[in-house]
Amino acid sequence: MKLKLVLLALLFAHQIHAQTKVWFDTDIMIGMPDKAAREVDDGITLIMALKQPQIQIVGISNITYIDYSYEIIHKIVKWHHKGAAIPVYKGSPEAADLGTENDATKALYQALKKEKLTILALGPMTNIATLIQNHPDIIPQIEKISICAARTPDMIFNPGNGKLNVFDYNYELDPKSMDILLNSTIPLIFAGYEPSSYTHIGTIDLASLDRTNEADKWLFDIVQPWMALNEEYFGVHGFIPFDCSTLGVITHPEYFSYYENIPIKVTYKKNDALEIQPDKPFKNFLEVSYKFKSKKKVKYARKALHGFEEKILETLRSKK
Predict the structure, then answer these.
(1) What phi, psi does 286 have (nearest 5°)?
(2) Do 274 and 281 touch, CB atoms closer than 8 A?
(3) Are 119 and 145 in contact, with CB atoms under 8 Å apart?
(4) Region of residue 219 (phi > 0: left; psi between -120 and 50: alpha; otherwise: beta)
(5) Of 69, 95, 122, 196, which has the fewest Cβ atoms less than 10 A away?
(6) What is the spatial distance between Cα 262 and Cα 248, in angstroms, rounded to a whole number?
(7) Tens of pLDDT, residues 214-243
């Protein structure tokens, strides 16, 4: 009996030690009051991340809608995290702020000085690129960055039934910052639209949430307008949880297929999302292909495998 207890203690200690330490950088918009509903996938990804025993979030930073998301992040953390406090920092409100230090970049620099971290980058790369540009000495402390962006050539971002093409938001909002990452030695893994398009969350999927619980009821209610907007634009009542894949390649890597060491570069060609970008007949695309001769090579998640969608739903239903 004593031997079993010792082995269990050792196993538990190993699991704690084996946790991946993560910095969570997000442009979270879930529930933001506006004329139209805003994306919910960052919020769902944060909830999922807080419940994962495989990772330890050491800090959270925000970008773009920093004042609104600061409050929402605190609300989600309060609901879904019961351990030591996770600090939250305001980052860059604009892509034009590249190179301008903020609370987030300063805190991330200090955190990396203490230990090596994996960075989850769910929005534009402004905070991360500012850190790298201003403090190149810290680059060896970054284990890798998981990014929600990029595509294979001719991959159209076309959710639902083909009614409307969308664009690579996280890349196109701040391409200069992405260039800084591409020119660095940091290992990068991309998991954006392409792998995420194999997952879909609908009303029935979320029906099993415990709506007697404040946090679950809030999530169920806040997602409904986003589902309705997706039905209007894409013909499908539900949504693709993009950023869950960006997290999933870190917490559940076995649920994805990959292109390993694939060259990545910026190409310039005809815009495939003219309906929502009518002033850009041509634009830059961030693409990966083994045909490219570019020096920078990355890991690219190309497909979420069967079972990952259920992992998302299981996590949302679970009580940590």
Answers:
(1) -95, 110
(2) yes
(3) yes
(4) alpha
(5) 95
(6) 20
(7) 999 999 999 999 999 999 999 999 999 999
